[in-house]
Amino acid sequence: MSLDGTTKRVARRRLLQYLAASPLLASGALPAFAESIMRAEDLPADKMWLQATGEVIASAKEAVNVFEFEAVARAKLPPAHWGFLTSGIGGEETLHANRAGYGHFHLRPRRLVDVSRPDTTTTLFGETYGSPIVVAPVGSQLVFHPQSETETARGAKAGDHLQILSTQTNSDPEAVIAARGRPLWFQLYASDSAELAAARVRRAEAAGFSVLVVTVDLVGQRRLERKDILRRSDKRNCGMCHGGATIEDKVRFLPLYRDFDLSGMTNPVDPAMTWESLKRLRDVTKMPIVIKGLMTPEDATLAVEYGFDGLIVSNHGGRADEAGLATIDALPDIVAAVGGRVPVLMDSGIRRGSDVVKALCLGATAVCVGRPYIWGLTAFGSQGVESVLKLLQAETLAMMQQVGAPTMSDLSPAMVARR
Ligand SMILES: Cc1cc2nc3c(=O)[nH]c(=O)nc-3n(C[C@H](O)[C@H](O)[C@H](O)COP(=O)(O)O)c2cc1C
Question: What phi and psi, each to the nearest 5 degrees, are found at residue 187?
Answer without folding.
Answer: -95, 130
